[in-house]
Amino acid sequence: MRNDTVLLTTHNDHISCSNPEAKNIYGGFISRVIAWGLIALSILLLVPASVFCHDHKIDPDLIRIGILAKRGPERCLEKWKPTAEYLTNEIPDHSFTIIPLGFGEIYSSVENREVDFILANSSFYVGLELLHGVNRIATIKELYFGKIYCDFGGVIFHRADRKDIDRTDDLKGKSFMGVEETSFGGWQTAWRELKEHGIDPYRDFSDLSFGGTHDAVVYAVRDGKVDAGTVRTGTLERMELEGKISLDDFHTIPQKHSYHDNCSFSLLHSTNLYPEWPFAKTTHISDKLAEEVALALIKMSPDNPAAKTARCAGWTIPHNYQPVHDCLKELRVGPYKDYGKVGLYDIFQQYWPWLLAIFLLGVLILLMAVYVAKLNRKLGNEIVEREKNIAERRRAEEATAANSIRLRILMEQSRDGIVVLDEDGKIFESNQRFADMLGFSPEEVSRLHVWDWEYKFPRELLLNMLRNVDNAGDTFETEHCRKDGTLYNVEISTNGAVFAGQKLIFCVCRDITERKQNEEDQKKLTELLMNSNKKLEDALVEREKAEKTLSETVDRYTAMINTVPALMYLKDIDHKYIEVNEAFCRFVNKSKDEIIGKNSFEVHSEELAKKYYADDNSIMENDTEIINQEEKYIENIGEMKWVSSSKIPLHDKDGKVSGLVGLAQDITEQYIGRQQLMQSDKLAGIGQLAAGVAHEINNPVGYINSNLNTMGRYLKKVNEFIEGQ
After folding, report:
1. Residue 89 CA to chain centroid, in angstroms?
2. How many other C-beta atoms are found inside a 10 Å radius of the C-beta of residue 96?
3. Where are the alpha helices (DSSP H) in 286-376?
4. Which residues pair with 68 in a beta bridge?
5. Where would you tag: which of 3, 129, 422, 549 has the fewest CB atoms within 10 A of its CB?
6. Is the pLDDT of residue 701 over 50?
7. Which of 208-212, 542-546, 609-613, 710-714 has the lowest mean pLDDT?
8. CA distance linking residue 2 with residue 68, whole number of Å
């Protein structure tokens, strides 16, 4: 065969072309047709996305996490805001924020690029995956009462006093409430369970309604507004823990069968179990950022404040959501609403770009057939297939290499030590930080086993721990030994997974030596505070003893004052009696309770009260004394008496007048005797006798006045002593 001859084989026909010029013209024409056809096809395939895609400008530094607010926006922000802050701290190049979404906002927020990541129930995720191409990067590990759950379902319940409802079949003809028609745990799981029992909720219930939130459904059943309801698992237990309800007021219909063994699932449930909520990325978010977020979430420990606020145990690798697909297919809801119902119009409306592309492709194939018919089919197919395989292999190798580089960069940029072990304790991979923590070079670390640096656990126990690690993971504290023999405290977070048939254990090691030292310092501070508290208690005991001694002293002084025959009393700055002795009470013919806290107008007659008020006011304003002033006293019954009165001002610790102390002696008899003697003074014959009588009378009066002055000074000192305490 000559060099300018091309052999083209079509079936069993052989056509030879020995004209190189004709061959070039014909081949050029076909090449141009193919090129323009491919360009038109590419533009056509891109038109739907570009035409209908909303033009949202995305701030590369602000990352929005859309979360289904199943219990309201406020509760959603309270629960998930710490997770956004945690991601911001772990990925400093970006700032994360929470966008609470209602049940009717999930699809539109993703379609309009209003969120960058989405956390919603498994039903929403399946629909978003099929319709908008979102991709799960992690699955939440829920924490209920100290136990980790990666699955959830629904619970059907009614009031405990409803004796007419015991089984699922008893719900026919009753009123029923779910959360939302799009709520997976709050309606769709229960709908599937009802359907399996032959109950059509849209036909067999007397009334079917939706409360909007899980709490609203629980309250509606509790208050008797509906006969029964359904919420997602864990809702009843959590509301009881929050003090909102009592589980004793409700009865749940238990599940009778399951797709898998769920004996370890201890929460109340009435339906099959499905994988927990996934954390998913939208299509416009780069794989690099998604990998950083996934690594940060999986690294989150159960005792992290973000995990505690979200009431979860952290995150794990994404689970299989095929059971959710099966549930939605059976119910024909969400992305499977029209599942099995396909018409020509539906096919054309949904797939018209592809149908048009197929038509153009058919035209291209027809044109190419003219050219391809002139080629050796077998040889051409082999060459094309070989080149295709080489290209796919090259792309796969490049993608694998790029992914490995990205993962290595993520590991090396981590502030924690990261090491991947196999079941035999041998290092599969580690980052530079882990080698630095141990003081080894990366080459030396690659030859180590876990027991070469683990200090607390023996080799056999370590191997047993490695065999038992699963995707739920574990977090614990231990000590590692450096190359130089020194020890340091470390917190380990582990997760197990199977890759290419080999089980690997992913470990994140955080140096907590400083935290341990802080805890020890805190312990010492606590002991110091306890010692200080003991000293304070001892001081209080001593003070109580002093107060008791003071009380006893006051009691003795009070008893002593009450034995004095003179009238004694204390008044405050407001002219009110604050203390009187028994002699004073007998003199005014009133009890002590009738006097204490009263002023002179409430104890004495108005005439006497005015005089006493004027004298007292002058003493306290001018800081003066009245000594041995004789005063007339007329009792309420009209009897007149005479007293010798002394009043001395009292001072507080600052020297200001705070009241007065009064002392008085009943001198009625002496006064009358003296008056009588004064009358007889006109009789000269008895003058000497009057002088003698007066002398005898003045002696006891002087004695009384002297005692009153002494008692006044004594009470003044008592008052100063009391104020000094």
Report:
1. 18
2. 22
3. 287-299, 305-309, 322-331, 344-372
4. 101
5. 3
6. no
7. 710-714
8. 73
Give, rounded to a whole angstrom, the gap between the first and last alpha carbons of the chain. Answer: 131
**654: which 2 tokens?**
């600052």
Q: Give me the sign of the Cα torsion angle 201, 205, 211, 214.
A: negative
C-alpha neighbours within 13 Å on the C-beta side of residue 423: 11
pLDDT confidence of 604, banded at 50, 70, 90? Answer: confident
Sort 215 into a burial class: Cβ within 10 Å, 0-12 / 13-18 / 19+.
buried
C-alpha span between 309 and 98 (Å, rounded): 14
Q: Kindly give the pairing relationship between strand 62-68 and strand 117-119.
A: parallel
- With b for 16 or more beta-carbon neighbours within 10 A and e for fewer, the 163-187 pattern comes to eebeebeebbebbbbbbbebbbbbb
Q: In 373-458, which residue ranges form alpha helices assigned H by DSSP?
A: 377-413, 432-438, 442-445
Backbone angles phi, psi at 115, to 5 degrees: -135, 160
CA pair distance 417, 508, nearest whole angstrom = 6
Radius of gyration of the chain (CA): 49
Decide if pLDDT at 633 tops 70.
Answer: yes
For tokens 């629980």, name the residue: 218
Token readout for 238 is: 């959590």
* Res 301 pLDDT > 50: yes
Please report how the helices 513-563 and 687-724 are oriented relative to each other, as an axis angle in degrees rounded to 10: 170
**DSSP codes joined into one string, 581-601:** -HHHHHHHT--HHHHTT--HH
Give the pLDDT band (50/70/90) at residue 22.
Answer: very low
- CA 308, CA 232: separation in Å to the nearest integer? 20
DSSP secondary-structure letter at 502?
Answer: E
Cα dihedral across residues 219, 221, 223, 225: positive or negative: positive
DSSP state of 266: -
What average pLDDT does the segment 255-270 reach? 66
Whole-angstrom distance, CA of residue 81 vs CA of residue 84: 5
Strand arrangement, sheet containing 474-481: 427-430, 417-422, 502-511, 487-499, 474-481
Helices (H), 631-686: 668-680
Residue 687: Cβ within 10 Å count? 13
Instruction: State yes or no: pLDDT of 219 exceeds 90.
Output: yes
Q: Is the pLDDT of residue 53 over 50?
A: no
Find the mean pLDDT for residues 26-54. 52
43 vs 656, more confident: 656
Q: Please report the sign of the dihedral spanned by the C-alpha atoms of residue 416, residue 422, residue 426, residue 429.
A: negative
* d(C-alpha 625, C-alpha 623), whole Å: 7
- Cα–Cα distances in angstroms (integers) from residue 476 to residues 295, 305, 438, in the given order: 19, 16, 18
Contact 27, 21 (CB under 8 A): no
pLDDT per position as a tens digit, 452-502: 999 989 999 989 988 888 888 889 999 999 999 999 999 999 988 888 888
| Cα distance between residue 62 and residue 95, in whole Å | 5
Average pLDDT, rounded, for the chain: 82
Helix residue spans in 100-234 (DSSP H): 106-111, 122-132, 189-196, 201-204, 214-222
The CB density around residue 70, as the number of other CB atoms within 10 Å, is 26
- What pLDDT is attached to residue 2? 38
Calculate mean pLDDT across residues 142-168.
91
Q: Which residues contact 614 (CB under 8 A, 6 or more apart)?
A: none
Do you know the residue count of the chain? 725
Q: What is the rounded distance in angstroms from the CA atom of residue 186 to the CA atom of residue 122?
A: 12
